[in-house]
UniProtKB/TrEMBL annotation:
NCBIfam families: LLM_duo_CE1759. InterPro entries: CE1759_FMN_reduct, Flavoprotein-like_sf, FMN_Rdtase-like_dom, NAD(P)H-dep_FMN_reductase. Keywords: Flavoprotein, FMN, Oxidoreductase. This is NADPH-dependent FMN reductase. PANTHER family: FMN REDUCTASE (NADPH) (PTHR43408). It comes from the Bacteria. Residues 3-149 form the NADPH-dependent FMN reductase-like domain. GO terms for molecular function: oxidoreductase activity. It holds the Pfam family FMN_red.
Amino acid sequence: MTTIAVVTAGLSQPSSTRLLADKLAAAVSSALPDVQIDVIELRDLAIDVTKNMLTGFPSPALRAAIDTVTAADGLIAVTPVFTASYSGLFKSFFDVLDPKALDGKPVLIGATGGTERHSLVLDFALRPLFAYLRAEPVATAVYAASSDWASPGDLDTRASRAGREFASRLSREGTVAAPASGFVPFEQLLRAGE
């Protein structure tokens, strides 16, 4: 069974950040059979993360979250955007991980914000963070502005595409079905000729 850790840093309840995380997890689940999804709400661990940064010792709840992320086959990481970047809570959680904990781990990144103008946070903040941690983000990342929730058709399409890419990356054989549009990942075309 494939395990996926979902880290969501939304502060409110309900939060659009959690809604996007759930949408991405559902997209992966529909593309990859036999998957276990474990969701980590960082809001619930905020005090534990802060204490760990001050003392260097995780609480049992934070240790469990860290172990879940470390042991997972893949990671979905979603943050709200504050001041044109990921939230402090999101960054602090990844700061308390062992620097090698995400080596080679596939990551599907997402972010939420009030306006579309913050969408570049995916490429200018999140990708560099995960590159530093030597994780491997998939090509498609998903940003959801407030307007995306009013008419979520395009958001659903983007989430579905990202979910398929992530599932393909996690699949040992890389045989995740191509979407109805006929798109087949290049790596799958190359393997077909072997």
